[in-house]
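Request: Not sure, any thoughts?
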Amino acid sequence: MLQGKKVVIVGGSSGIGLAGARAAAGHGAHVVIVGRSEKKLQAALEQITGNIEGHALDFTVEENIRQFFGKLGNLDHLVVTAGGNVSPSSFVEAETSLARSVLEGKFWVQYNTAKHGAKYVNRGGSIILFSGLYSRKPSKGFVALAANNGAIESLGRALAIEFAPIRVNVISPGLVETPIYHMIPEEQRISMFASVAKNLPVGRIGMPEDIAETMLYLMQNGYTTGSVIYVEGGARII
């Protein structure tokens, strides 16, 4: 069902976005990946077989987004995996500017991308946003991220009404092994992953390919909209 469809993935040069781009291209889609780093984009393009193109762009600037979609033209599926690294901090002691930076890098990127991209999405197409598990299962030190994720989920539900019949859904991943964790020393990272995995019902943490399968489902299932799909290995029930 993706053969010949145009799929745009913002944040498609690494991690979850790259896995989604590879999966969509494997199903015959014309995939457009967008990222900030030209170097990462080139590396990503070399890893994907199929009809693929890349664009380097700073999506934190709204005017950049507007111009990008104006030049790109019509598309079928728009995926926004924008996230960014967030370190734990005390809600009371942290500067409010930290929370604002989280919103700028995740919520507002997705808000503005949906705003300017929606007019180019073909009938029968979809938009997929990304939140995260902290919206339903908060953790100490991540208040700003929890609030941010909750806002994205509300945004997705509202846009499903606003943009109908274009479908809008949100994916909420749990812990997934992506390059964002590579800043943690390897031994510590492996230990963290193992600690989380042993407590999950599925017995492992997520891989980008797990989330990519959910992207494909949401692109192809024409009866799913306004939903938040949790892909978290059962973390919500423990």
Summary: The CA atoms of residues 198 and 204 lie 7 Å apart. The helical segments are 15-26, 38-47, 62-72, 96-117, 143-162, 186-199, 208-220. The chain has a mean pLDDT of 95. The chain has seven helices and seven strands.
